[in-house]
Amino acid sequence: MHILITGTSSGIGHGLAQEFLARDAKVWGISRREAVDLLQHPNYHHLSLDLTNHDGVRRLVPDFLMDSNRFDLVILNAGVLGPIKWMSEVDADAIKQVMEINVWANKVLLDLLYELGKDIRQVIGMSTQASLRSTPGWGAYAISKAALNMLMNVYAQEHLNTHFSAFAPGLVDSDIQETIFNIQETDKYPTVKKLQEARYTEAMPDSRAAASKLILGMEKALQYDSGSFNDVREI
Ligand SMILES: NC(=O)c1ccc[n+]([C@@H]2O[C@H](COP(=O)([O-])OP(=O)(O)OC[C@H]3O[C@@H](n4cnc5c(N)ncnc54)[C@H](OP(=O)(O)O)[C@@H]3O)[C@@H](O)[C@H]2O)c1
To answer: CATH no. for residue 94?
Structure first.
């Protein structure tokens, strides 16, 4: 298997890369930071890059992916939480930054992959239940992930040889969960309180423990219409 994963330096992307490498896949990973354990693996290739830098993507990704003309799976996983604040308190520029990585970076990368003539079997856009139902404080994240869901749907209509899904991974311990864990105003943001309570319980495994189930969920997602939203807990 040839797999391209964005956001492999920590969390879900890191756990998925570890698991795919353990299954003898070749993995190409992109993130700003590097994960030392992945770099040591002969089947792992890393590109340190800010995916919101569109010129950098267009300049560096072609050479980086030169050795493979097909990808069995492209996992658009890199993402940020953004500010947890009521919408009226969030600066519009802060929302734009969240949209840049959670939405537009994925568009730019996908367009480039097709332009380079890569044969892509499946694309997973890493989404969340918050894309369907926001709760107080989650506005920027929820809007960006709702847009990601539609981005997957739009590409599904226009690239019929690739299967697309917006995919919710469930709760996985990660840097994003660490940020949520440290938020103080839990009365104002009820979902934050629930996530803080779930941390260090079976309800929120670490990314290595979650990876097998996520990979199985991605395989199952192929049975659903291209462009649909799937939650790993429901398929
Ligand atoms: N953890 C959960 O419970 C959960 C639930 C639902 C959805 N998700 C989604 O899962 C995905 C992974 O999140 P995570 O929880 O694993 O958090 P994480 O540990 O913070 O991982 C985020 C990854 O995205 C990369 N990234 C962020 N901005 C980037 C940029 N500008 N350019 C390149 N890479 C960038 C980070 O790498 P660098 O900082 O090194 O660039 C990191 O590898 C996100 O899309 C998140 O929305 C997570």
So the answer is: 3.40.50.720
Give the strand pairing for 2-6 and 122-126.
unpaired
Residue 184 lies in a domain: no
Question: Domain of 40?
Answer: 2-171+207-231
Which amino acid is located at 110 in the chain? L
- Say what the pLDDT of residue 91 is: 95
- Residue 108 CB–ligand 1 contact under 6 Å: no
pTM: 0.97
φ, ψ (nearest 5 deg) of residue 81: -85, -35
- Parts of the chain with a pLDDT under 50: none
In a domain? residue 160: yes
Q: Is residue 202 part of a domain?
A: no
**Within a domain: 60:** yes
Q: How many domains would you assign to the chain?
A: 1
CB of 19 closer than 8 Å to CB of 212: yes
Ligand 1 atom nearest to 8, measured from its CA:
43
The pLDDT tens digits of the residues spanning 99-155 come to 999 999 999 999 999 999 999 999 999 999 999 999 999 999 999 999 999 999 999
**Distance from the CA of 77 to the center of ligand 1, in angstroms?**
6
Q: Is 3 in the pocket of ligand 1 (CB under 6 A)?
A: no
Q: Is 221 helix (H, G, I), strand (E, B) or coil?
A: helix
